[in-house]
Amino acid sequence: MTVLCKIYRSANKSDCYLYVPFEKDLEGVPEALLKQLGKLESAMTLKLTPERKLAQADIKEVLSQLDQQGYYLQVASTTDEYMQIVRARNEKL
């Protein structure tokens, strides 16, 4: 499976990247998600194959989500880890 993919960077959430199939662009992305992400800036276009390595995402998961729901949302793991620490500390209060 080979997918030409367009990747957008969120202006509102600097750690979020939205992957969409090039030919469909944003048409499969829910309106609520687009509103949350705010203005999207084109980051790059990539040809994705199962053999390709991605820095922050599992290529099989990306390809699966692109096929099933028409987009893949990448959130930087550092933010997730930080939020888990904050949540854990708040639960102790």
Structural descriptors:
globular; NE1680-like fold; four-stranded antiparallel beta sheet; 3 helices; alpha+beta; 93 residues; 29% strand
Structure description:
The protein has 93 residues and is α+β, with helices and mostly antiparallel strands. It has one domain: YcgL domain (NE1680-like fold, Roll), CATH 3.10.510. The chain is 37% helix and 29% strand. It has a 4-stranded antiparallel sheet with strand order 3-1-2-4. The chain is globular and about 45 Å long.
* Rg (CA only): 15 Å
- How many strand units? 4
CATH H level: which superfamily? YcgL domain
Mean pLDDT value: 87
Main sheet: strands, sense, barrel: 4 strands, antiparallel
H/E element order: EEHEHEH
Strands ordered across the widest β-sheet: 3-1-2-4
Could you give the distance between the termini? Answer: 49 Å
Give the number of domains: 1
Would you spell out the secondary-structure blueprint of this structure?
Layout: E1 3-10, E2 16-21, H1 31-37, E3 40-48, H2 59-69, E4 72-75, H3 77-92
Antiparallel strand pairs: 1-2, 1-3, 2-4
